Amino acid sequence: AQSVSQHNHHVILSEAASLELGCNYSYGGTVNLFWYVQYPGQHLQLLLKYFSGDPLVKGIKGFEAEFIKSKFSFNLRKPSVQWSDTAEYFCAVNGMDSSYKLIFGSGTRLLVRP
Amino acid sequence: EAGVAQSPRYKIIEKRQSVAFWCNPISGHATLYWYQQILGQGPKLLIQFQNNGVVDDSQLPKDRFSAERLKGVDSTLKIQPAKLEDSAVYLCASRTGADYGYTFGSGTRLTVV
Predict the structure, then answer these.
(1) Which of residues 90-109 of A touch B (CB under 8 A)?
(2) Are B106 and B8 in contact (CB under 8 A)?
(3) Which chain A residues are Cβ-neighbours of B33 within 8 angstroms?
(4) pLDDT digit string, tens, across residues A10-65
């Protein structure tokens, strides 16, 4: 069964610092990869997704992620974080069947200090 | 476009009591999911409906959890009897079409004491 690992559980940064959140998945076949964000008190929102093609994916709010197949990784990056990026970030991979279900990582809580 | 509606937002119950959560998906979304998000973990799929039929309930603890989606629209998730380890946020999501266009609700936070 697939699994997703997010090794950074808590990250604290100052504004304008660069961000990289790690995500590794276990499935060796064709994968669809996602990053979701959950702002305090809000619902999960899609930041970006990778299905195929260019392994560097750009999402909303200046986020991007790079798919590295050889490393089974899909790390999230942002060159300069803002206080408003304080949230929990979840990496997810598709299930192996055709149900479009998502397998989520355990999440990374990001705190950006002004 | 209205989002996925869930109620209640919060619920506190004692162990062995029963509880029900309600979800109203986005109009026209055929697929509905219930996810359980325990503190410190990512969401875990409990059950998936396609219209009013169950597609996947392999992770649903069927001895205490049940779910239905009457008429292929609203859905209810029930826990009876609740255990302490059921304390979590229960997320409902809906999706349309053959893609990963999920819309999540804000969730119901359940605390079992």
Answers:
(1) 90, 92, 94, 97, 99-107
(2) no
(3) 101
(4) 999 999 999 999 999 987 678 899 999 999 888 899 999 998 899 999 999 999 99
